[in-house]
Specification:
The protein is an all-alpha fold. The protein has a domain at 5-41: Histone, subunit A (Orthogonal Bundle), CATH 1.10.20. The protein contains 4 helices and no strands. The longest helix is centred in the first third of the chain and has 16 residues, at 24-39. The model has no long low-confidence stretch (mean pLDDT 82).
């Protein structure tokens, strides 16, 4: 099946591909060969053949969910940093008695 230069450029634009000018004829020949190979499918006798999305019957091999013993909270967090020491939630609070203008350092610009 022949494909024109304009069709090659259109497909390239749709695929957001940059084809160098000196390669357009080569790509045109390659796309033509691909289309020729795909067109062979239309020559097959496919009456009575069910459409498929995959050549093999696939079945999910998922296990059923079941409760199993697991780590306790303390065991799971044993190597984690201590949140009382290394957490953003442990920043010192600003007492309500400190005026707002003194609660944060002012960095000159």
């Amino acid at each position: 099946m022949a494909i024109t230069r304009e069709q090659v450029l259109h497909v390239a634009r749709l695929a957001r591909l940059r084809i160098p000018a000196d390669s357009i004829e080569e790509v045109q020949a390659q796309l033509g060969a691909i289309l020729e190979a795909v067109s062979k499918v239309s020559e097959l006798e496919l009456a009575g053949v069910e459409p498929t999305s995959h050549p093999l019957d696939l079945v999910n091999a998922w296990d059923e969910d079941e409760v199993r013993p697991s780590l306790s909270r303390d065991e799971a967090l044993a190597n984690a940093p201590d949140p009382a020491v290394n957490s953003t939630s442990s920043l010192p609070t600003i007492p309500a008695s400190v005026p707002p203008e003194r609660s944060a350092p002012v960095v000159p610009s």
